[in-house]
From TrEMBL:
Top-rank taxon, per record: Archaea
Lineage, broadest ranks: Archaea, Thermoproteota, Thermoprotei, Sulfolobales, Sulfolobaceae
PANTHER family: AAA FAMILY ATPASE, MEMBRANE PROTEIN
Span of domain PIN: 7-111
Name this polypeptide is given: Putative KH and PIN-domain containing protein
Length: 510
């Protein structure tokens, strides 16, 4: 019986992330396993920097060491510490010199090996499903997995869901890492999949229809995976919108804000609106971070993570879309880009987190001049429990603000009107050096003192109201905004009480 001569297999990072140990264990590939020292050094640096992929790759190295001992093949760390260069480059040089085979799942590595004449084995996908999919059913919106806790799922629809335990047994750290490894392996196999962001301690992946967020210590207190999937995909017609809103969207609305609390269906509505504009023959593009809208190929989706804000600005101005949908606007850069593109004539649809429609307008007030607000924002659509619950329109005029009497107080005023009733509910104007958003009470004229108190309070608590009852001024604050009633506001109100010899009372609304 002759001695079996085994090939030497040099593994790269992509092979480790692709789960090469399964191929070795099943006998799909055979040979002695080599790992270059430069790759281990690279994985060590990345792991110390908190990169999840490096941690997964190092887990695979440990698994390979155990498997090679079991199937009686060599496992060896090779390479020269003194040579400088990238791990892939040094691995190819080693294989050219020693005649070993590079095992890879990376298309770029494959092409370079072809060009250099380096032998390679390109890993083909194994036919197997994703284990986490067994947790999903038709009602599952998201899956929440964390080490040492039971897996849970959010089931229902936006605005009407509940948490459900999926097991009585907590998941071990090794189980969570195995699922994370499986997800990373699947990125190359599933169409429309990519690693969107990898930062210290976190990884965001688009895996087909699934959006996956993986976190690890020290960012989180344990390994955690959150997987979301769109449960509802609506057309705009499914929302049974008021005809006045449909007409406005088709004819006048070009500075649109879609607002709502997290999980209420803002992105679902934005997706439906983008498709609606596309069906009207408009050129539509999106800016997302990460890209998680599911749209037809006619709509180009840009990732904010792969381009500078200035680059996106130039691309969108040169490509001249009719509408740009800006999902998840959060920071100053996002709002600045929205404003710049809108003032340049691009129709904009922005998605923002807000607990009330007026809060969405507040996000712009201190960032732009009052005179430009109606040119930037003309339609505010508030989403609650998956439906449109409120629509505001904005118009500018010159008038005396509601509640003031003197004619010489006339100034530019932005009126915020309810589209359904046509009534003005809020006014925006400059008083002194401050920009005010003041609620308008129809049929009630504010006294000068009520106005002064409103000016102080509404600057911090926009939805609070002031009224005079039984010899005292009553400030009514919504329960959800009581956290904004701070020490600074208390001190200002006390000074006002002392100076004017009045009584001010605080009351919570139901």
């Amino acid at each position: 019986m002759g001695i079996r001569i085994l090939n030497d297999l040099m593994l790269d990072k992509s092979a480790l992330l692709f789960g090469v140990s399964k191929y070795l264990e099943k006998g799909i590939i055979t040979g002695n396993v080599l790992i270059h020292k430069s790759l281990l050094a690279e994985l060590e640096r990345e792991s110390n920097d908190g990169l999840v992929s490096a941690e997964i790759a190092l887990d695979e190295v440990k698994k390979l060491k155990d498997i090679t001992e079991r199937i009686l093949v060599n496992f060896e760390i090779v390479g020269d510490d003194s040579k400088k260069g990238e791990a892939n480059e040094l691995s190819r040089e080693y294989c050219l010199e020693k005649g070993c085979i590079i095992v890879t799942a990376d298309e770029t590595q494959k092409k370079i090996c072809d060009a250099m004449g380096v032998q390679y084995n390109f890993l083909q996908p194994l036919e197997q499903g994703l284990s986490f999919e067994s947790f999903f059913d038709d009602e599952t919106m998201s899956l929440h997995i964390k080490e040492d806790t039971v897996p849970r799922a959010k089931k229902g629809k936006p605005g009407n869901w509940k948490f459900v335990n999926l097991s009585d047994k907590p998941m071990l750290s090794t189980d969570v890492r195995m699922i994370a490894n499986e997800i990373i392996n699947a990125v190359r196999l599933i169409k429309g999949s990519f690693i969107e962001i990898e930062r210290k301690g976190s990884l965001i992946i688009q895996l087909g229809n699934y959006r996956v967020v993986i976190t690890r210590p020290p960012l989180s207190d344990g390994w955690e995976i959150t997987i979301t999937r769109p449960v509802v995909r609506k057309r705009l017609e499914d929302y049974n919108l008021d005809e006045r809103l449909i007409k406005r969207l088709e004819e006048r609305a070009e500075g649109i804000i879609i607002a709502g609390a997290p999980g209420m269906g803002k992105t679902t509505f934005a997706q439906a609106l983008a498709e609606y504009y596309m069906r009207l023959g408009k050129i539509v593009k999106t800016i997302e971070s990460p890209r998680d809208m599911h749209l037809p190929p006619e709509i180009t989706q840009y990732s904010k993570n792969y381009a500078e804000i200035g680059e996106l600005h130039d691309i969108l101005l040169l490509s001249r879309p009719d509408y740009t949908v800006y999902d998840e606007m959060r920071n100053d850069e996002d709002f600045k880009l929205y404003v710049d593109l809108r003032l340049a004539g691009v129709g904009m649809v922005g998605v923002v987190h807000a607990t009330s429609p007026i809060d969405a307008i507040h996000r712009f007030v201190n960032r732009v001049d009052i005179g430009t607000i109606p040119n930037i924002l003309d339609t505010i659509i508030f989403i609650n429990s998956g439906n449109v619950s409120k629509v505001y329109t904005l118009e500018i005029t010159v008038k005396v603000p509601a509640g003031l009497k003197e004619a010489d107080l006339a100034r530019p005023v932005v009126e915020i009107k309810d589209l359904a009733t046509g009534n003005t509910e809020y006014e925006i104007y400059v008083f002194g050096e401050q920009t005010m958003i003041v609620p308008v009470n129809r049929g009630i004229t504010m006294s000068n003192m009520e106005f002064k108190i409103s000016k102080i309070v509404n600057n911090i608590i926009p939805n609070a109201t002031v009224k005079y009852e039984d010899g005292e001024y009553v400030i009514v604050i919504p329960k959800e905004e009581i956290g904004k009633y701070n020490r600074k506001l208390v001190q200002r109100l006390k000074r006002l009480e002392k100076k004017n010899n009045i009584k001010i009372k605080i009351k919570l609304s139901d």
